[in-house]
Structures
1.
Amino acid sequence: MIIKEDLCTGCLECLPYCPTQAIVQDAKTERATIVEDECVECGVCYRARVCGPDAIYPQDLEWPRTLRMEFSDPSAPYMSPVFEHRIISRFQADLREMDRRQLLDREGEALTISGRGTIEMKMNDMMGRFKRGRAGLAAEVGRPGIGARFRDVQTVTRALASLGVKFEPQNPLTDLMTDIQTGTLREDILNEKFLSCIIEFDVPLEDLAKVLARMREVAQQIDTVFAVDLISVVNEDGSIPTVPIAESLGLEPSIAGKTNVGLGRPLASLD
Amino acid sequence: MTHSNHRQGTRENLKNDWVMLSLPYRGPPAITEKVERYNQICRRHHPINPDRPRGWYIWVFDDRENMEAALKELAEAELGLSVVVSGLFDEVAECCRTAGTRAHTVNHSLGFWGRTEKLPPPEILEITTMCGHALVASSLVWHLADRVRRNDVSAAAACQEMRKMCICDIFNHVRADELMGQLVEAIEEGRCAPPQPSPGAGLPCNLTTDLSGEGATP
């Protein structure tokens, strides 16, 4: 995003709307300006319609800056060439033909929200993606609201890969890896900043403690935060096998979160 | 999407925060018919985001009874769609039993790891995490709360403004309104400073945007 200096009146109303506080007052002109390297192209400042003279302008993006939008604006279609194979419908293809302003001006865009993760456990009753005896894990790098760069992501993926973790192939992050075995990302994207990027994988329950411990270590080596998700099939008696393992490490699983309530049919095998 | 998984709060203030979604939300006619029935059922039980277009699939309830009634009716309808409810785990499990089903798979948050000193205070985080995509800026929440403190805008209007940023519309503005008091108090007592701008020339600002829908005041 950019702010057209000649249109900006210097009212500064747009400043607080930016999730990464990338809109600041220029010391010389006293008008609002966007720190380009900190902007994640989420489109919030534009969608907020807070600028009377319409000085906030969504410029078209080029690779690798397209990644900022793709990992920050949940309604954005895949635009980067690296995600070409993910354009699976005519609808998505049509979105891709729009310029940035048209994309942000869409009405009813909620229907296109797909996020940048996968359906994880939301259809586990019907798809059985997470089996008994395994734990699903995710590190949502940059959440909540801090943002991150792909170099932070790479620090985490390399640490996890060293334990033999297999990254979820359906997650778009996997497309950005040059070596999935080592968790190495493309060199040309490492400085790109975004709101969140989800590292998804699952592990056998017997490896869960080891992997969580490694995640805790690597969290100290990055310049941002990540939110941690822990997924488990619920036992017949209502107990949750991942909880005691997490608690044994001094972790406190949340009191609130997501429950797949088992209404999907037909039920998938979990063995 | 794990965007409803890290809503922060206490047991007490999470009791009015329930998000229900169903997948798939697109597909062949037989599926879209089921989704429409799912939506009709959810709409009947008073979600706080009722004015969504056809084909919508995420509903927010500020009352357990309404969520529970919706879940029970969904179970009775035997649509065969996967349904996920975000909220207090033990209460969702109880609602499942009432509805004649059981929790199948759960997704816990283990919190936020790393440079947590960068996070805003809990009073702000409890509000911002209701938009899991982080489109409700901590700086916006602070500035709007400060305006509420100065009687410049009502808490309800401030929360509606926050809600507008959340394009999935899973931001629970009713709960945000209820949380506003503790945030205003924290600002009043100097326990909650405004978030700092990114590197660059930044100055604190005193914002006055008209929230009546008339647009920005220059």
2.
Amino acid sequence: MPSYFFHTRDGWKLEIDEEGTDLPDDQSARNAAKELLAALNREKLPNGDHMSLSVTVQNAQGVDIYVANLRLDGASTDILPDPKLSKQDGG
Amino acid sequence: MDKQHYLERLVLKLETHVPLPPAEREKLLQLPLTLKRLEANHDIVREGELTQQCCLVAEGLVCRYKIVGDGARQILSLHLPGDIPDIHSLLIERMDHCLGTLTPAVVGLIPHEAVRSLTRASYRVSEAFWRETLIEASIYREWMVGIGRRAAPSRIAHLLCEFITKMTAIGLSDGVICNLPLTQPEIADALGLSTVHMNKKLREIREARLVRIRVNRLTVLDWKGLCSLAEFDPDYLHLQPGAAKIKDD
């Protein structure tokens, strides 16, 4: 089975995969990349409201075959009050 | 190796949980055993099959597993020499999961009739087997907590802690170095992780210098650190104080 390398970027932190994982074909590697993003997302989520994860899949020849990004922007609604509502409160 | 040696492994395994009187030990050593040499990834008993014998792991690594709809495998438990992973088949004859080898293995088949007459003749042996299944249930609970609630690095560390602790208890490791004949997809299947995710997190554990893993060999570099990452407390394994426990350095 050919090897694929899954390099990840979490914010500014880049992690180079030097060992690789054996997978049957490109399609399995693309699916594995998406699965990896979903799993990393589950791990990161409790830590904050912003996250940007990406994974680049490289084949054994060193050619990038797939890139996937995942981004989260969350904000609490109570610190972003609706201006109309706050006017009413004031008056 | 001869049958006697493998039955001694069974006795040793039972005695990691409770000491047995010499007479009961002797009875266990008299059990009839048919040895079978198996390749890696060979099914010993399949889901749905009826069995009339129990399988003692004599050499190698055996697992219980289930395959789900899309073909993914969940490894349910790992079994080392001395284990009888299908002892429950004495009372529940139809297998509700598969039992298969992960490495080349030698198993010893013991007819149900022989085990049954032994357990009927000796309540201590009967209790010893009962205790085994209870402790296995305790291990399942721990795995359930891991798969359900622990983050991937902690799950991986927990498996490594458990594996080397069990290997040490049966005298197959010194508590620092142990044979770990599991491939990365197999570890992933035991932890409910994808192989790529598992590889990435295992690399982080190695880069933190908690363990070294080279060609099927696990070396613990920082036992305290590994246990702390895993939240590993060996109480659920219910080992006798006499059974080797890994000491903090």
3.
Amino acid sequence: MSTAILPSATTTTSPFGSASHLQCRECGARYSLGAEYACIECFGPLEVGYEFGTVTREQIESGPLSIWRYSALLPVSATAALEPNLAPGFTKLVRADNLARALGMTGVLWVKDDSGNPTHSFKDRVVAVAQSAARRLGLSTLSCASTGNLANAVAAAAARGAQPSVVLIPSDLEPGKVVTTAAYGTTLIAVEGNYDDVNRLCSELIGDPVTDDWGFVNVNLRPYYAEGSKTLGYEIAEQLGWRLPQQVVIPIASGALLTKVDKGFREFIDLGLVEETPYRIFGAQAVGCSPVEQAFRAGHDVVRPVRPDTIAKSLAIGNPADGPYALDVVRRTGGSIGAVTDEEIVEGIRLLAETEGIFAETAGGVTVATLRALLRSGELDPTAETVLLNTGDGLKTLDAVSPHVGPAGTIAPSVSAVVDLLGGAA
Amino acid sequence: MSVTVRVPTILRTYTDGQAEVVVVPEVETLSGVLSALEVSAPGIGARVLDDDGKLRRFVNVYVNDDDVRFLDGLDTPTPDGASVSVIPAVAGG
């Protein structure tokens, strides 16, 4: 009789690392790790559960300059960094003194600039984790419903991984996001309808034989995918010198990013990686799609869907799946949620660009404008250290800003013409 | 007076793996459709409705492509030939 030598449950060669199960966020039912995303009992969303071992600052600091430095805290194998992927993350945390001054803030203001990711939005983080899970689960085709940024990220990640991909987008998406997806050679499908219609279509496609080997990163891989957003919280804490900020302003689309940044902070506290200091989380939405903000203001814990109508298309999710959890986090931490008009969004984009040299997409404009609005209303403390998340690059949404900026004039190529244009003061 | 109900993967254990079920409701509302569905697929109703008989928080139901939360919820009319889709609300962004 031979004796097998079994690896321990916490071995780093486990296919999903320290992740141990899926668990329903509503009723607590447990499931084994698989391509499941909704609870059979109550339809609640499933979330990855872990049995973390010891994780130290030194271990993390010795890792790669990407999200994979946090592999031990993600549902991925220890070798995830070595598999073909875009190696996103560890983007810059920019000290924004000029913007702080413009807004009348005396506390230190930082911009976590996730436009520095490979496809220029935070979506590379979540896709990298989903891509790893897809490999473990034998799902060879990467797919998604997308408002644009995710489309870019999935198409590029699949290209790097030499995998097929199918990306479904609303047919009215910004031209820049269509081109920057199609360029990666994906099968791009434009669907007549808004994002919620596309999302619904993807949910209905699951179970159809045509999608048997498809991993929809934000549907059947969603429990893994969403965990990628924790890395934004981890990085903010690490880049601040292993401590938590007092205030964070985060855009809300589905609400997953906001809840996962909070989860990242809490895990760092629980693991003893940072001291437990109070922090408040603030959400940002566009008035043209503000179901979570409306629920917050009305004191509701249920989010009533809306039909989106805003230039901030990457936030235009009228039926946000994680809205109730975003409300829980904001209320628990003593934050709030603001909503801003399309005009304010453009002002926000220009303010960040003109004060800090960071050109954000419309979602970033929403976040800057919401920061300003919540300072004016007194809900945000101007003396507290604050981190603002910029989740995407302004080059993707040029249409929003192009009517508002341009040359100071068109002149003949002569010195006198320049002097004249500048009012003769040069 | 028949209505087609599209059933999500996680509920197909109640429908012998069928993705679509045709029901003939006694009352032509979503509530009537779900009652008829319960008769043909016992147990499925309790998965879609909570203990108070309301749609669960993470269930999206569409009647002819319209989210019933924009219509009349469980009282949404379901005329002959209507299609009803039940979908987990766990997707997005």
